[in-house]
From TrEMBL:
PANTHER family: SET DOMAIN-CONTAINING PROTEIN 4, UNCHARACTERIZED PUTATIVE METHYLTRANSFERASE. Its main location: cytoplasm. The keyword Metal-binding does not apply. Forms a ternary complex with TBK1 and ZNF268; the interaction with TBK1 is ZNF268-dependent and leads to TBK1 monomethylation. Its EC number is 2.1.1.364. It comes from the Eukaryota. This is SET domain-containing protein 4. Belongs to the class V-like SAM-binding methyltransferase superfamily. SETD4 family. GO terms for molecular function: histone H3K4 monomethyltransferase activity. It catalyses: N(6)-methyl-L-lysyl(4)-[histone H3] + S-adenosyl-L-methionine = N(6),N(6)-dimethyl-L-lysyl(4)-[histone H3] + S-adenosyl-L-homocysteine + H(+); L-lysyl(4)-[histone H3] + S-adenosyl-L-methionine = N(6)-methyl-L-lysyl(4)-[histone H3] + S-adenosyl-L-homocysteine + H(+); N(6)-methyl-L-lysyl(20)-[histone H4] + S-adenosyl-L-methionine = N(6),N(6)-dimethyl-L-lysyl(20)-[histone H4] + S-adenosyl-L-homocysteine + H(+); L-lysyl(20)-[histone H4] + S-adenosyl-L-methionine = N(6)-methyl-L-lysyl(20)-[histone H4] + S-adenosyl-L-homocysteine + H(+).
Length: 431
C-alpha cells in the first residue's frame, strides 16, 4: 500500500524547495566540516549559520532561523582570529623582530599566509586556508586588456594599486631571503610575486578592522588587520546595517544586525557606504542597484567643454583645486551631484561675473545665463559619458567572444559599465 505524504512530508519538501530557491546548503562539504571542527576546538559555537551557494552572490552564509533587529549574528573568539600576534608567536616571529628596517604589519601577515599555504598539511591554519579563494578579481589581478576597459578614474586607481603591490614585493624581497633557514626550498620560489599578490588580496578583501597597539618590531603603518575565519564568508549588501567590533568582555569579534532576515535567507553585512567603483577596487565585486553608486567625472572631461581661450580659465581651475572641487564630481541615481554642478557653475562664470566666485562655491545663483549654461554643459558631459560607456560595452562584448579565458573578468567590468549606463540615463532624464 502506497504511503500518503503527510504534513511533515509536505513540510520537508517545501523546506528543501525553499532552501534551494534561496541558496544551496554546503555545510556537508568536507572543507566546511573541517573548518567548523577547527573553529569549535578554538571555542567557536554556532548553530544558526550555514555555508551556502547563492545564485546572485556565490558563496555566503544562510541562517537556519529568523533573525531579528539587534540579534547577534556571529561571535568569533579571539583564538580564531589571525592577527600580527599570531604571526609573532609563529616561527616567523624571531626573524621579524630582528629585521631592520622593520616590516609593516601588512607584510608580516602576507608572509605568514604564504608560509602557511606552502606548509600545506603541516599548517595549523590549513582548514582556514582550504576555504580561501584560490584567485581574486581585484583590479590588481586583472589583465591589461580588462583594466583598459574600466572607467577612466577607476583605471587610474587600478594602475596605482598594481604599482603599489609591485613596489611592496620589490621592497620585501630582502626580508623574504632572510627567512631561508626556515625552508628547504629557495625562498625566491616560495615568496614570488604571484604568492604575494594572492596574500595581499586575501588581506585587502577579507580583513576586519581591529586596532592593535603599536609594536617596535613593526613599521609605523597602523596595525588594524584581523582575518576572521567563517565570519569572512558573510557577503556585503548596501541595504543592511550592522554593528561590528571586538568585545573586550567576551574577547570575541561580534556582529550585531539592525536588519531582519528570514529563515533560510542569506545573511548580509555592510562593508560601508561604498559605490561600485570602490567595491570593485577594494573587494573585486560590484553590488547591483547599489544606492551609493555613481559615475565619476574626471577634470579632463570637465575641461573638454570650456573655451580654451577663456582668460580666467587658469584662475578658475586654481580656485577649484584650492577648494577641493576637482575630485569626487559625480552623476548619481538622482542626477548630477551638487559638487559637479558647483564646479561647472564656477567654470561657466562670465568675465564680468568672475568676482562672484565665492558666492558660487556657497551655492548662490549668480545669473539666469550662468544657470542655463551650467545645465547645458552638464547635459553634454552626461551624453558624452553615455556614448563612452556604450562604446566600452561594445568592446567588452567583442573581447568576450575572442578571449574565452577573460570571460569572468570581462563580465565583472561589463556589470559595472551597465550600472553606470543606468545611472547616466537616469541623470539625462533629470537634466
Amino acid at each position: 500500500m502506497k504511503k500518503r505524504r503527510g504534513r511533515t512530508g509536505r513540510k520537508r519538501r517545501t523546506k528543501c524547495l525553499q532552501s534551494f530557491m534561496d541558496g544551496v546548503n554546503c555545510s556537508h562539504k568536507l572543507e566546511y566540516i573541517q573548518l567548523k571542527k577547527w573553529l569549535k576546538d578554538r571555542g567557536f559555537e554556532d548553530s544558526n549559520l550555514r555555508p551556502a551557494e547563492f545564485l546572485e552572490t556565490g558563496r555566503g552564509l544562510m541562517t537556519t532561523k529568523a533573525i531579528q533587529v539587534r540579534d547577534l549574528i556571529i561571535s568569533l573568539p579571539e583564538k580564531c582570529l589571525l592577527t600580527t600576534s599570531t604571526v609573532l608567536s609563529s616561527c616567523l616571529g624571531e626573524y621579524i623582530m630582528k629585521w631592520k628596517p622593520p616590516v609593516s604589519p601588512l607584510i608580516a601577515l602576507c608572509t605568514f599566509l604564504i608560509a602557511e599555504k606552502y606548509a600545506g598539511e603541516e599548517s595549523q591554519w590549513k582548514p582556514y586556508l582550504d576555504v580561501l579563494p584560490k584567485t581574486y578579481t581585484c583590479p590588481v589581478c586583472l589583465e591589461h586588456d580588462v583594466v583598459s576597459l574600466l572607467p577612466e578614474p577607476l583605471r587610474k586607481k587600478a594602475q596605482e594599486q598594481r604599482t603599489m603591490v609591485q613596489e611592496l614585493y620589490m621592497s620585501s624581497k630582502a626580508f623574504f631571503s632572510s627567512l631561508q633557514p626556515l625552508f628547504a626550498e629557495n625562498t625566491g620560489t616560495i615568496f614570488n610575486y604571484s604568492a604575494l599578490e594572492w596574500a595581499w588580496c586575501t588581506i585587502n578583501t577579507r580583513t576586519i578592522y581591529m586596532k592593535h597597539s603599536q609594536r617596535e618590531c613593526f613599521s609605523l603603518e597602523p596595525d588594524v588587520y584581523a582575518l576572521a575565519p567563517y565570519l569572512d564568508l558573510l557577503n556585503h549588501s548596501p541595504n543592511v546595517q550592522v554593528k561590528a567590533a571586538f568585545n573586550d568582555q567576551t574577547r570575541s569579534y561580534e556582529i550585531q544586525t539592525n536588519s531582519q532576515c528570514k529563515k533560510y535567507e542569506e545573511v548580509f553585512i555592510c562593508y560601508g557606504p561604498h559605490d561600485n567603483q570602490r567595491l570593485l577596487l577594494e573587494y573585486g565585486f560590484i553590488a547591483m542597484d547599489n544606492p551609493h553608486s555613481c559615475v565619476y567625472v574626471s577634470s579632463d572631461i570637465l575641461l573638454k567643454y570650456f573655451p580654451p581661450l577663456d582668460k580666467q580659465r587658469n584662475a578658475k581651475l586654481s580656485i577649484l583645486k584650492d577648494h577641493d572641487f576637482l575630485e569626487n564630481l559625480t552623476f548619481g541615481w538622482d542626477g548630477p551631484s551638487w559638487r559637479l554642478l558647483t564646479a561647472l557653475k564656477l567654470l561657466s562664470l562670465a568675465a564680468d561675473e568672475f568676482t562672484c566666485w565665492r558666492r558660487t562655491l556657497l551655492g548662490d545663483v549668480i545669473s539666469a545665463k550662468n544657470e542655463q549654461q551650467t545645465l547645458t554643459i552638464t547635459a553634454k558631459i552626461c551624453h558624452y559619458l553615455i556614448e563612452e560607456t556604450q562604446h566600452a560595452l561594445l568592446q567588452i562584448s567583442q573581447l568576450k567572444r575572442m578571449k574565452e579565458n577573460l570571460r569572468e573578468h570581462l563580465a565583472l567590468v561589463e556589470a559595472l559599465r551597465l550600472e553606470d549606463l543606468k545611472i547616466l540615463q537616469k541623470s539625462a532624464e533629470v537634466l
